[in-house]
Amino acid sequence: MLTIHLADHESPVVWTPERELPVDGVWFDLCNPTPEEIRRIERMSGFAMPSREAVSALGLAQRNRDDERTLHMQVAMAADDGGPDTPLGLALDERFLISLRYAPSRAIDAAATQWQHSRETTPVSVFALLLETSINEVAGEMQKIAGDVAQLSDAVFVDARLRTSDLQDLMLCVGRLEGRLARFRPSLLGFARTLGFVENRAPSFLTKAARSRLKVIASDLKTLEEFDDQLTEKLQFLLDAILGFINTAQNAVMKLLTVASVVTIPPVILAGIWGMNFAHMPELKWAWGYPLALGVLLVSMLLPLAWFGWRGWLGRD
């Protein structure tokens, strides 16, 4: 579909093959375009549109380029449905902005809505507006992740002791949050590289006001990158804390097993001695030999426990 946003900010026009492209179009938005729509845009712009494979190319050096009058840029945008990143191709010059995408985008829809209510008429202003709405969309998602991280922190640091299965579930939550956060890093990197590319090329149609606006956007991007670093460090801290709690629980189990093994050593020795098959053992003829032996075994177990308690080695765990 080819949607055309006009300079007079009227309702956007959805192009059909039987009509000509409007001469006052400022922003031409291609979403899953047909071959005929691609041909019409190429005829109007005077340059070839890249294929989907080219827009999705991984090579960073070829993503941004310019010719005599047009800046060509490519950005990987986070998909609205949480799936793989979707490519976004942009072509900017003093006549128009062309966007080429292959999936719906809330950010682009928001930019289209804001364009209808704005008073700006230049393609550079559309480009800046598109970056602003995309960055705002990422910022909103990161704010949601920050709220989930705060809830996760409250769930980890509680007074009650958590079971190992609960701690494992919390580790899975950390992994899911990190995965959600990682989805937006390619977009932030792509926007930063695109802004740097436009500022370095400094085309003649980039006015002083536009440069100032792009600098503000670059500042917002830097803030989001710092916010991303903070969230990443917080998630790493929570992961380390969860692993520490699991290690503490395991150490408590090992401590219990160690105490049990030490406490049972004396009675095992005594039982082994009294279990020897010698013909002359005085205790065998004692009337109270059996209960006395049981009492000695019990005392031999209590004495190590009392010593451990006196040394402070027996705590709540």
UniProtKB/TrEMBL annotation:
<dbReference type="GO" id="GO:0000287">
    <property type="term" value="F:magnesium ion binding"/>
</dbReference>
<keyword id="KW-0460">Magnesium</keyword>
<dbReference type="GO" id="GO:0050897">
    <property type="term" value="F:cobalt ion binding"/>
</dbReference>
<dbReference type="Pfam" id="PF01544">
    <property type="entry name" value="CorA"/>
</dbReference>
<keyword id="KW-0812">Transmembrane</keyword>
<feature type="transmembrane region" description="Helical">
    <location>
        <begin position="288"/>
        <end position="310"/>
    </location>
</feature>
<feature type="transmembrane region" description="Helical">
    <location>
        <begin position="256"/>
        <end position="276"/>
    </location>
</feature>
<dbReference type="GO" id="GO:0015087">
    <property type="term" value="F:cobalt ion transmembrane transporter activity"/>
</dbReference>
<keyword id="KW-0813">Transport</keyword>
<keyword id="KW-0472">Membrane</keyword>
<dbReference type="InterPro" id="IPR002523">
    <property type="entry name" value="MgTranspt_CorA/ZnTranspt_ZntB"/>
</dbReference>
<keyword id="KW-1133">Transmembrane helix</keyword>
<protein>
    <recommendedName>
        <fullName>Magnesium transporter</fullName>
    </recommendedName>
</protein>
<comment type="similarity">
    <text>Belongs to the CorA metal ion transporter (MIT) (TC 1.A.35) family.</text>
</comment>
<dbReference type="GO" id="GO:0015095">
    <property type="term" value="F:magnesium ion transmembrane transporter activity"/>
</dbReference>
<dbReference type="InterPro" id="IPR045863">
    <property type="entry name" value="CorA_TM1_TM2"/>
</dbReference>
<dbReference type="GO" id="GO:0005886">
    <property type="term" value="C:plasma membrane"/>
</dbReference>
<comment type="function">
    <text>Mediates influx of magnesium ions. Alternates between open and closed states. Activated by low cytoplasmic Mg(2+) levels. Inactive when cytoplasmic Mg(2+) levels are high.</text>
</comment>
<keyword id="KW-1003">Cell membrane</keyword>
<dbReference type="InterPro" id="IPR045861">
    <property type="entry name" value="CorA_cytoplasmic_dom"/>
</dbReference>
<keyword id="KW-0406">Ion transport</keyword>
